[in-house]
Amino acid sequence: MSTKDTDHIITILDQVTSFLCVLLTGVQLISYVFGIFPAMQHRTLFLGFVLSIILLIHIRNKLKSKILDIWEIFLLFGIIFSSAYIFVNWYEMSFRVIRPEKLDLMVGILIIAAVINCSNIRLGRPLPLIAMFFIFYALFGQYIKGDMGTVSFTVQRVVSILTMETSGIFGTILGTAAKQIFVFMIFGSFLELSGASEFFLKMTSTMLGSLKGSGAKVNTMAGGLLGMVSGSAVANVMAVGPMTFPMMKKDGFSKDFCGAIAAISGTGGQLMPPVMGTAAFIIAETLAVSYGEVTKAALIPGVLFYLTIWITINCHSNHLGLKERKEKADWIPVVKNGFYYLVPIIFLIVTISVLKWSPIKAGLWSTVLVVAVSQFNKDNRMTLKIVIRAMENSAKGALTVSVACAVAGIIVGILSITGLGLKFSTVLLALSGGHKIVLLVFTMVAGLILGMGMTTTSVYIVLSVLVAPALVDFGVEPIAAHMFVFYFGILSCITPPVATAVFASASQLNVSPIKLGLYTSRIAIPIYIIPFLFVLNPALLMLESAGIWIIAEFILSALTIIALCSSIEGCFMTELKKLERILLFVGAVCELHTSVMVKLFSNLLIVIILLRNIQKKKQRQ
Predict the structure, then answer these.
(1) Cα distance between residue 53 and residue 36, in whole Å
(2) Do residues 217 and 310 touch, judged by C-beta distance below 8 A?
(3) Which of 95, 160, 169, 198 has the greatest count of CB atoms below 10 A from its CB?
(4) To the nearest 5 percent, what fractions of the chain are helix, strand and coil?
(5) Is the whole-model pTM more than 0.85?
(6) Which residues contact 217 (CB under 8 A, 6 or more apart)?
C-alpha cells in the first residue's frame, strides 16, 4: 500500500471517528431528553459506540505507523455485530441466562474480549489484568484450598452473568457512565471551548498576582478550577503548567518545587465538587445516596487539600524570603469582562445542592447556559461549528472512563457470584489485629499500589468492592470509607513509581520524573494525612454533625496541616529549629490519636511553637 493510499485511508478513518463521536453525543442527548431506551438497550448502544470509536482510533494510529492490525479490525466488526445482536435480542436473552444459546455465548465472549482489549489500549495493562484474574478465579477458584477458594463456575455461567444481564459489564457502573458521567463530559467540553479556561487563568492571575509566591498560587487556583471540570490530573498539569511555570520561576522557585505544586494542584481538582473526576456519581450509585450528599461530604476534604498547598507555598516563600509585590493588578475589569463564565458553574452547584435536581437535568441545563453566556464574548462565541466540535470532544473525553466502567463491571460481576470481596475484607480485618489505624494504613497502601497507572474511577471501583467493605465492617461510616479509598486512588497520581501527574510536570520542566516524584511525595505528606483525619473525625464530612462541631474539627485539622507543612519546609513565618520541626511533626501526628487529652496537649504544643515563631518574625522586622 502506497503512502498516498495510507494517508487517504487515515483521513477517512478520522472523518468516520469524528462522525461517530458526534453521533454518540447526539444519541446520548436524545436519550437524556426523551428517555427512549430501556437500561440494557441504552448501555449496549453506548458501549458499542465507545468500543468502536476506541478501536477505530487505535487502527488509525497503527496504520499511521504502517501496521495493519487484523485482530483489531476483526474485533471492530465483532463488536458492531455483538452490540446490534444484544440491542435487538436483549429481552429474549434475559429469559435464557441460565441456558444461553451458542450465539449468545459467542457474542458474550466477543464483548468480553473487546472490553479487555480496549481497556488495555486506553488504560494500560493493570486493570485488564485484574479483570482477567477475576475471570480465571471464577473458572478455577475451586482448586484453591482454604477460605479463599470458591465453588465451580462453568464458562457458560461466567459469560452469561457478565454479558446477558445488568449485573456484569452492562451493570449499574456502565449505566452511571452512560448517564451522569457523560452529561458532565458534555458540560466540561462545552465550558472549555467557550473560553472559560482562559478566563479562569486570567482571573486567578490578576487576583493573586501581587501575593507572596503568586505564580505558585495562580497555578494552584487555576488547577483547582480546571480540575473541577476536567477531572484529569494529567490534563490539568498540561493545561496550566506552561502558562504558570514561567511565573513560578520568576518568583525564584526551583524546578522541583514548580513541578511538585503543579502535579499536586492538578491532581486535587478531582476532589473538588461539583464534578470530582466523575467518580462522585459512581460513589453515589454504590452507596445508594444522592449525588448532593457525596459532594457535600467531599467539600471540606477538598478545601483542606488546597489549603495544604497554599500553606506549603507560604512556608516555602518565607523560607526563600519572598515578599508581596507592592503593585497590584486590577482584577475588576477581568472579572467584569468574563464573570458570565461563572454563571453555569454556580447554576450547576445550586440546582444540584439546593434545588435537588438530578445530575442529568442540572448538567443539561448548565450546558445550555454555557452556550448562552458564550454569546457575550464576541471573540469566542459558540457557533454551530464549535458546538459540533464540543460534541466530538465530549465523546472522546468519555472513552477512557467509559471503558474503565465496562471492565470494572467484569470485576463486580465476578465478585457478586464468588463472594471474593467478603473474603478479602475478612483477611484485611484479620491482618489489622483489630486496630483501626493499621487497617487504614493497609487500605492506603492498597489504594496507592492498585492506583498505579490506573484512572481514578478505575481504582475507586476496585477498592470500593475489595477494601471499603472491611472499613465499613470495622465501624467506619460508609461514605467515609468510600471517600478514603477514593482519596488514595487519586493520590496515586503523585505517588512514585507510577505518578502520572508528576511525569506530566517533569516532561514540561525537563527534570528527572523519579527525583521529582520523591520530592512531590515528601511535600505532600500533609495531604496523605487528610483522609485519616476525616475517617477519625466524620464531622469533616458534615455527617449529621452540629455546625459548631464541624467548624471546630476544621480548625483543628487546619492546625494539624499548618504544623506538618511548617515541619517539612523547616519554616513557618521564619526559620524553625530542628527540635521545633520534630515537635511540630509529632504534635500533628498525635491528632490521629483517639485520646482527647493527647489531642489537647499536642494542639497546645503546636500553638505555642507557632506563636513563638510569629513573635520571632515580629522581632526581626
Answers:
(1) 23
(2) yes
(3) 169
(4) 80, 0, 20
(5) no
(6) 204, 208, 211, 310, 313
